[in-house]
Amino acid sequence: MAVTSPPRSAAAAEDRPIRSWVRAHRNKPSEWLLGLSSWFVADRHGSYGLAVMRIVSGSLVLAWLLVNLPVAERIWGPGSAYWEPHRNVIGYMWPLDLLRNAGSGAFWAWYVITIALVIAFILGWRTRFITPLLFVFYAGINAQNTVIADGGNYFIRIMLIYLVFADISRRWSLDARRRARESSPETQTGSVLHNLALCMVIAQLCLVYFEAGMYKVQGTAWQNGTAVYYPLASETYGALPWLSGALTFFTWATVLATYFTVIIQIAFPFLLFNKVTRRITLLGILAMHLGIAIAMGLPFFSGIMASADAVLVGSATWLAIQRWGAGALQKRTAKLGIRRGVPATVPSASVPALDTDVVANPRTEDRALVSRR
Predict the structure, then answer these.
(1) φ, ψ dihedrals at 186, nearest 5°
(2) What is the pLDDT of residues 22-78, one digit of tens each?
(3) Rounded to an integer, what distance in angstroms lies between the CA atom of residue 310 and that of residue 289?
(4) Are residues 201 and 159 in contact, defined by beta-carbon separation less than 8 angstroms?
(5) CA dist 217 to 63, 165, 369, Å?
(6) One-letter-per-residue 3-state SS of the chain
């Protein structure tokens, strides 16, 4: 008597779960590729974060140039000829060596033009042309004396290369107002280049933090938790002796700061994929940079790095900060009007956004941002 077997299809489903899973998800790769291509083409992401990066980093570069204005000729100009052996070792080539044999007049003309380019960069005026020019002029100045430069100088020069291809003036800029008046269209090629540049900025951040953390963890001082003590106790980096003494008075605080710095840098790239861990990571990185800026006296380096971290903050957050700032300014103006006896208008319930192309409820990155086409 023949024994009947279960249906062939049911047996195959039970005996081959991997094949069944593959068959059920066979369309996933094409869906992922379609979603990825749509992300690059459909819109220009991170526009508010890039605007913050443009304004903050440009302001820091402008402050750097203005603070060093009295000694600029001795640092980067004809008076810096004593660095010639070092320049031969570095070997900067054209166009970064244009100031190498420049006279006083040519140097100051270059310096003043650089300041003008930085101001245009901050205001977001014709950034497609200003950004590459700023890279050449600013890098040309720094190439004259790389010894006094810190990590912020090198980092912003790398970032400027990426920002050449990004639409950094899409928000909070003179270009944004001009485009709103002219209804300038946005091309798909420009969107792809913008989003690629944004990815490169984030990748560079991850590389810098991860490499710095891996380099630190190899040192004995970082392993035993004493590394933070030495720069704070030195005369070179201890900008505020009383603060350095207070921070290093407790051993546990020094050990905690040392291990926190290593962990937050190494874990940075891996904690960006989740919304909650990304926020915690950004707050931790900001705290680290504030500590470096205040306790070690390196505000330029910390500010430049923190400005790049701004691209990882969502547009909804930046819009909330904008509305809060506009509301605070309106209340302050109303109070001043009352003190001077001028009738003050009652603030409206909702503060309008400063951009003309922002809708009221942005819940996702740039999806709720309507651009004039």
Answers:
(1) -110, 125
(2) 777 777 777 788 878 888 888 899 999 999 999 999 999 999 999 999 999 888 888
(3) 13
(4) yes
(5) 34, 35, 43
(6) CCCCCCCHHHHHHHHCHHHHHHHHCCCHHHHHHHHHHHHHHHCCCCHHHHHHHHHHHHHHHHHHHHHCHHHHHHHCCHHHHHHHHHHHHHCCCCCCCCCCCCCHHHHHHHHHHHHHHHHHHHHCCCHHHHHHHHHHHHHHHHCCCCCCCCHHHHHHHHHHHHHCCCCCCCCCCHHHHHHHHHCCCCCHHHHHHHHHHHHHHHHHHHHHHHHHHHHHHCCHHHHCCCCCHHHHHCCCCCCCHHHHHHHHHCHHHHHHHHHHHHHHHHHHHHHCCCHHHHHHHHHHHHHHHHHHHHHCCCHHHHHHHHHHHHHHCCHHHHHHHHHHHHHHHHHHHHHHHHHCCCCCCCCCCCCCCCCCCCCCCCCCCCCCCCCCC
C-beta of residue 291 within 8 angstroms of C-beta of residue 257:
yes
Q: What is the dihedral of CA 308, 312, 316, 319, to 10 degrees?
A: 0
Average confidence (pLDDT) over 82-92: 74
Q: Identify the residue whose tokens are 């208008």.
A: 345
Instruction: State how far the Cα of 85 lies from the Cα of 81, in Å rounded to an integer.
Output: 9
User: 354-372 pLDDT, tens per residue?
Assistant: 443 433 344 444 443 333 3
- Chain centre distance of CA 106: 32
How far does Cα 145 stand from its chain's mean position? 25
Q: Residue 23 CB: number of other CB atoms within 10 A? A: 10
- 295 with 247: CB under 8 angstroms? yes
